[in-house]
């Protein structure tokens, strides 16, 4: 009987977190876009169907947990996986049709990077030198102040160059 109570409590807890993520999307989107500032350069967004599918699968996993005869540990793992999936989908939903370089942020494929958190753009210091070979000019590498390294992939060199110019117009100190 204790396992059934655990299953039901886990279901309600996971569903509460899931609904919290879903319900917070409009508020978080508005808050992030207000903080991001003016759009400088728009980037292509991903399809909404992937985000909806992740939300749907996450909800199904959470809903099925109380009806399955898994051990409590397995039930918890399934619920946590569904919660992580819904967290990922929430970030994707926030950036849908909003991807771009803003005055204070870079929103791209579910990632929200604050321009002030960029420590350096390492490839721009050597990519145009004659002796440098093999640099993919459709990618832009960034190192954040936290030490995290991020690579952004663009469809072509022109889009990357425009995106880079937009970032450098806000943070000219990154040129060196």
Structure description:
- A hairpin with a 2-residue loop joins β2 (100-102) and β3 (105-108).
- With 176 residues, the protein is an alpha+beta fold.
- A four-stranded antiparallel sheet has the order 1-2-3-4, sandwiched between helices.
- The N and C termini lie far apart (65 Å).
- The chain contains four helices and seven strands; from the N terminus they run αβααββββββα.
- The longest helix is centred in the N-terminal third of the chain and has 35 residues, at 2-36.
- α1 (2-36) runs antiparallel to α2 and α2 runs antiparallel to α3.
Low-confidence stretches: none
**Backbone CA Rg:** 21 Å
Shape: elongated
Count of alpha and pi helical runs: 4
Strand order of the biggest β-sheet: 1-2-3-4
Task: State the end-to-end CA separation.
Answer: 65 Å
Rounded mean pLDDT score = 88
Q: Tell me the fraction of residues in β-strands, as a range.
A: 15-25%
Fraction of residues in H or I helices? 40-55%
Biggest sheet character:
4 strands, antiparallel
Summing up helix and strand content along with how strands pair, one would put the structural category as alpha+beta
Number of strands: 7
Order of helices and strands: HEHHEEEEEEH
Short description:
The chain has helices at residues 2-36, 48-64, 72-95, 157-170, and strands at residues 39-42, 100-102, 105-108, 111-114, 118-120, 139-144, 149-153. The chain is an alpha+beta fold and 176 residues long.
């Amino acid at each position: 009987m204790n396992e059934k109570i655990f299953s039901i409590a886990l279901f309600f807890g996971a569903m509460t977190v899931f609904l919290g993520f879903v319900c917070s999307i409009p508020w978080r989107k508005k808050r992030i876009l207000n903080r991001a500032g003016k759009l400088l350069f728009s980037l292509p967004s991903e399809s909404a169907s992937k985000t909806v599918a992740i939300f749907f699968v996450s909800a199904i996993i959470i809903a099925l947990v109380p009806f399955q005869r898994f051990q409590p540990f397995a039930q918890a793992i399934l619920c946590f996986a569904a919660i992580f999936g819904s967290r990922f989908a929430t970030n994707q939903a926030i950036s849908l049709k909003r991807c771009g370089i803003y005055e204070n942020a870079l929103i791209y494929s579910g990632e929200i990077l604050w321009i002030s958190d960029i420590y350096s753009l390492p490839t721009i210091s050597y990519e145009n030198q004659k002796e440098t070979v093999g640099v993919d000019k459709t990618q832009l590498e960034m190192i954040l102040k936290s030490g995290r390294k991020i690579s952004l992939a663009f469809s072509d060199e022109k889009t990357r160059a425009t995106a880079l110019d937009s970032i450098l117009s806000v943070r000219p100190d990154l040129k060196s």
